[in-house]
Specification:
Layout lengths: L4 H31 L10 H23 L1 H25 L4 H35 L1
Helix pairs in contact: 1-2, 1-4, 2-3, 3-4
Keywords: Membrane, Transmembrane, Transmembrane helix
Length: 134
Protein backbone atom coordinates (compact mmCIF):
# COMPACT_ATOMS: atom_id res chain seq x y z
CA UNK A 1 0.00 0.00 0.00
CA UNK A 2 1.39 3.38 -1.02
CA UNK A 3 1.41 6.11 1.62
CA UNK A 4 0.03 9.39 0.20
CA UNK A 5 2.48 12.29 -0.01
CA UNK A 6 0.45 14.35 2.46
CA UNK A 7 0.71 11.63 5.10
CA UNK A 8 4.41 11.15 4.42
CA UNK A 9 5.09 14.90 4.81
CA UNK A 10 3.09 14.88 8.03
CA UNK A 11 5.11 11.99 9.39
CA UNK A 12 8.46 13.61 8.52
CA UNK A 13 7.43 16.91 10.08
CA UNK A 14 6.25 15.15 13.24
CA UNK A 15 9.54 13.24 13.32
CA UNK A 16 11.51 16.51 13.11
CA UNK A 17 9.35 17.99 15.88
CA UNK A 18 9.95 14.89 18.00
CA UNK A 19 13.72 15.05 17.45
CA UNK A 20 13.77 18.72 18.45
CA UNK A 21 11.82 17.88 21.59
CA UNK A 22 14.31 15.10 22.35
CA UNK A 23 17.05 17.73 22.13
CA UNK A 24 15.12 19.90 24.58
CA UNK A 25 14.68 16.88 26.84
CA UNK A 26 18.45 16.39 26.81
CA UNK A 27 18.93 20.00 27.93
CA UNK A 28 16.46 19.59 30.81
CA UNK A 29 17.97 16.24 31.75
CA UNK A 30 21.45 17.77 31.98
CA UNK A 31 20.12 20.42 34.35
CA UNK A 32 18.40 17.78 36.49
CA UNK A 33 21.49 15.58 36.60
CA UNK A 34 23.76 18.44 37.62
CA UNK A 35 21.43 20.31 40.00
CA UNK A 36 18.65 17.85 40.89
CA UNK A 37 14.92 18.07 40.25
CA UNK A 38 14.36 20.65 42.98
CA UNK A 39 16.95 23.20 41.82
CA UNK A 40 15.80 26.81 42.12
CA UNK A 41 17.40 27.86 38.80
CA UNK A 42 19.44 30.53 40.55
CA UNK A 43 16.53 32.01 42.48
CA UNK A 44 13.78 31.79 39.84
CA UNK A 45 10.15 32.13 40.89
CA UNK A 46 8.46 28.91 42.06
CA UNK A 47 6.16 28.66 39.01
CA UNK A 48 9.15 29.08 36.70
CA UNK A 49 10.97 26.28 38.50
CA UNK A 50 7.94 24.01 38.24
CA UNK A 51 7.43 24.83 34.56
CA UNK A 52 11.05 24.26 33.54
CA UNK A 53 11.34 21.06 35.56
CA UNK A 54 8.04 19.77 34.16
CA UNK A 55 9.44 20.07 30.64
CA UNK A 56 11.83 17.23 31.50
CA UNK A 57 8.73 15.01 31.42
CA UNK A 58 6.42 16.89 29.04
CA UNK A 59 8.90 17.19 26.16
CA UNK A 60 9.54 13.43 25.76
CA UNK A 61 5.84 12.69 26.27
CA UNK A 62 5.06 15.11 23.44
CA UNK A 63 7.70 13.48 21.22
CA UNK A 64 6.15 10.07 21.88
CA UNK A 65 2.62 11.33 21.19
CA UNK A 66 3.71 12.93 17.93
CA UNK A 67 4.50 9.46 16.65
CA UNK A 68 1.91 7.34 18.43
CA UNK A 69 -1.12 9.66 18.67
CA UNK A 70 -0.38 12.39 16.12
CA UNK A 71 -3.29 14.77 16.68
CA UNK A 72 -2.78 14.86 20.44
CA UNK A 73 0.96 15.15 19.87
CA UNK A 74 0.54 18.12 17.54
CA UNK A 75 -1.75 19.92 19.96
CA UNK A 76 0.68 19.35 22.82
CA UNK A 77 3.69 20.29 20.67
CA UNK A 78 2.18 23.66 19.73
CA UNK A 79 1.17 24.26 23.34
CA UNK A 80 4.64 23.42 24.65
CA UNK A 81 6.62 25.56 22.24
CA UNK A 82 4.26 28.55 22.47
CA UNK A 83 4.22 28.52 26.27
CA UNK A 84 7.97 27.95 26.38
CA UNK A 85 8.76 30.94 24.16
CA UNK A 86 6.19 33.17 25.88
CA UNK A 87 7.47 32.20 29.32
CA UNK A 88 11.13 32.55 28.39
CA UNK A 89 10.49 35.90 26.70
CA UNK A 90 8.89 37.16 29.91
CA UNK A 91 11.73 35.67 31.97
CA UNK A 92 14.36 37.31 29.73
CA UNK A 93 12.91 40.74 30.52
CA UNK A 94 13.95 40.28 34.16
CA UNK A 95 16.90 37.87 34.12
CA UNK A 96 19.83 36.95 31.92
CA UNK A 97 19.24 33.82 29.83
CA UNK A 98 21.25 31.68 27.44
CA UNK A 99 20.57 33.33 24.13
CA UNK A 100 21.57 30.28 22.09
CA UNK A 101 18.84 28.20 23.71
CA UNK A 102 16.32 31.04 23.53
CA UNK A 103 16.98 31.67 19.82
CA UNK A 104 16.72 27.93 19.08
CA UNK A 105 13.30 27.91 20.77
CA UNK A 106 12.15 30.84 18.64
CA UNK A 107 13.40 29.11 15.48
CA UNK A 108 11.57 25.93 16.47
CA UNK A 109 8.40 27.94 17.19
CA UNK A 110 8.59 29.56 13.74
CA UNK A 111 9.24 26.19 12.09
CA UNK A 112 6.24 24.65 13.86
CA UNK A 113 4.04 27.67 13.10
CA UNK A 114 4.83 27.50 9.37
CA UNK A 115 4.53 23.70 9.04
CA UNK A 116 1.95 22.50 11.57
CA UNK A 117 -0.93 22.86 9.13
CA UNK A 118 0.78 20.41 6.76
CA UNK A 119 1.47 18.04 9.66
CA UNK A 120 -2.12 18.35 10.85
CA UNK A 121 -3.78 17.84 7.46
CA UNK A 122 -1.75 14.72 6.69
CA UNK A 123 -2.68 13.29 10.07
CA UNK A 124 -6.33 14.35 9.97
CA UNK A 125 -6.82 12.79 6.54
CA UNK A 126 -5.35 9.49 7.72
CA UNK A 127 -7.47 9.55 10.89
CA UNK A 128 -10.62 10.19 8.86
CA UNK A 129 -9.75 7.34 6.49
CA UNK A 130 -9.19 4.96 9.41
CA UNK A 131 -12.54 5.94 10.97
CA UNK A 132 -14.28 5.32 7.63
CA UNK A 133 -12.86 1.79 7.52
CA UNK A 134 -14.16 1.01 11.01
Amino acid sequence: MRIPDRERRSFYLRLVYALCLCGATWTHLQVALVHGLWWDYGGAAPLTRIYWTSLLFIDPLTALLLLSSPLAGLILCVTVIVTDVVHNSWFALHHPIRMDLYVSQIIFLLFVAFTVQTAWLGTARRSAALRAVD
